[in-house]
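Quick log. Single chain, no ligands specified.
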Amino acid sequence: MDTEGLLPAVGFGTAPLGGFRAPVTEDAAAAAIGAALEIGYRYFDTAPLYGYGLAERRLGRALKGCDADVRVSTKVGRLIDPEAPRPPGDLFAGDSGTATFDFSADGVRRSLEASFERMDRTHVDVAFIHDPDDHAPQALTEAYPALEQLRTEGAVGAVGVGMNRPGLPTRFVTETDIDVVLIAGRYTLLDREADDGLFGAAVARGVHLVAGGVYNSGVLTGTSGRETFNYVAAPREVLERTQRLRGVCEDFDVPLPAAAAQFVARHTAVGTVLIGAANAREAVENWEHLHRTLPDELWPALEVCAGC
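-> predicted structure:
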C-alpha cells in the first residue's frame, strides 16, 4: 500500500497510561489524552501489554465521541490472562493478570478482538506485531499473514511490526509487504543502531517508519530520578555521555529533551516520532519539544560531542 500520509508526524504513546513503572489515575490519564488532542496530537499508539488492557480501555474511553481525524494503532502477539499471577520484575502497575506470547494466526485474531472490545472499536489504522524477538518463524509465517488477511477484511488499515531491536524488523521489511515499522530506542542521541540497516531498507521499500523511545526510557529527559537507559538503570558510561550532551545543549540554551526529540525527527527516513506521556503536562511538553525552534549550529556540535 502507499504509506504516504499513513500516520501523522507526531504520535502519543500510551504505555505510561497503563502504569509503566508507576500508577496513573483515571483522571490523569483522561487529562493527558485530552491535553494531547487539544494541542494537536492526532495519532495514539497502545497495546494489550500496557497495563494488561488498562491503556487500551483508557484510550477508548478518552476518544469516545472525538470528532477529530485521529489514527489509532495497537499490537498483537500477546494475549491477556486476567487471572494469571504477575511475573517477577513486572513493569506495569495496571490491571490484574499478565500477558502470554502468542503469534499464531488464531492468537492474532483473538488479541485484536479483545483490543477492539477494550477500546470499543471495530477498526485500527495499524496493527503491530509486538516484540516477536524469540518467535521469528511463527511471527513471519502465521502472525503476518493473519494481519494481512485482516487488512483485506478491513479490520486493520495497515500491518506493522514493533520492536526494540532492528534486525528482525529489517527481515520483515525485506521478506514481507509490511506497511509500517515501529522501532523504539534504537535511533537516539545515544544509540543509532537502527540507522545501520533498517532505515535504508525501509526507505527502499516505501515502509513508514515510526521512531519511539527518543529519550531511551528516561535518561535523555534530563530529569532527576529518571536515569534509566532502555528500561534499566543507566550505566556510568551512558550517564557521562548524557552529561556531555546536556552541556552542549546548555551552550545553545536548548533543553536536552528538545534536542533528543528533534534529533530523531530530523532523520529523513523517520515518518513519525512517538513519545509517551503519563499526564497532561508531559504531553504538552513533548509536543513543545518537537516544535521548538532550535539553532542550526546545535546539530554539528552534538555530532562532535557524540564522537568524544
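The chain is about 40% helix and 20% strand.
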